[in-house]
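Quick check before the chapter quiz. The format below is the same one you will see on the exam, so make sure you can read both the input and the output lines.
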Amino acid sequence: MDDLEIIDEINLTAGTTYTLTFEIENNLDSPGEDIGEEIAEEDDEHQFFFSFTEDAFSDPTGNGNIDNTSDPVNYADSDDNNNPVGLLTTWTTSSDALSDGTFTVRLQHQPDIKSSSTGANDGDTDFDLTFVLNIQ
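Here is the expected output.
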């Protein structure tokens, strides 16, 4: 059995805009399965939520939307009901350096309940990963 491979540190450049995408695979079975494709196909049942060190980013501002669904996150994709998904997001880092901050991504599975107001604690958590965030 292969181990789950997770890079636990994100190193970004200050004052730079990034596009975040996900490559999510299950390679425990052969052949492997593209979980990202499944999430895209079932986008009306999934949403990514984010939390990060306060003011690590100039856009979106704040600390993410895990604690409050209405907090800003720059979702660049949506489901057929125009609700955010999060397989594609944009981020602009602050001009200030940051060492040992945090960046958390949580994927919620929300069949039959996903709406514009469902949050990071609604439905079932598919994964909840926290990374060290450094901005130089």
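If your answer matched, good. The chain has one domain: 9-135.
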